[in-house]
Design goal:
The chain is of the alpha+beta class. 44% of the residues lie in helices and 18% in strands. The strands form two sheets. A three-stranded mixed beta sheet has the order 1-2-3. A two-stranded antiparallel sheet has the order 4-5. Keywords: CBS domain, Kinase, Transferase.
């Protein structure tokens, strides 16, 4: 069973973040530039304030007819987020994203964001684990 630590070791700990006071258009530009669907929102000093995603943009800017140039990230970000630690297991994280209906889990250690795990990372880990178990069963049967 893979842990968040192992997931981050294989994918890297890079986290893209934005300030809650930045304009939403800047968040969307950064997501487009990096080819990602969400950003961690960090207060000055690095405290986790929330997450902002393409979903937030679509629902709270586009559908509401608001201006992405004049609206700060703080106004559309999701502040009530769930975080995980380095020793959390991938299946437990998968359960969290399923139950909370989120796609990203910030990894926090001692109050600092050290990584981000996406639902794609978790699906990949679960598939790899299942493939490993299947291979072991096939070896057992054929030997």
């Amino acid at each position: 069973m893979r842990t968040v630590r192992q997931l981050l070791e294989s994918k890297g700990p890079e986290v893209h973040a934005i300030s809650p006071d930045a304009a939403v258009i800047d968040a969307i530009r950064l997501m487009a530039e990096k080819g990602i669907g969400a950003l961690v929102v960090l207060e000055p000093g690095g405290r986790l304030a929330g997450m902002v995603s393409e979903r937030d943009y679509a629902r709270k800017i586009v559908l509401a007819g608001r201006s992405s140039r004049e609206t700060p990230v703080r106004d559309i970000m999701t502040a009530d987020i769930v975080t995980v630690g380095l020793d959390d297991a991938a299946p437990a994280c998968m359960q969290l994203v399923t139950e909370r209906r989120v796609r990203h889990l910030p990894v926090v250690v001692d109050g600092e964001v050290v990584g981000l795990v996406s639902i794609g990372d978790l699906v990949k880990a679960v598939i790899e684990e299942q493939q490993y178990e299947l291979d072991q069963l096939q070896r057992y049967i054929t030997s």
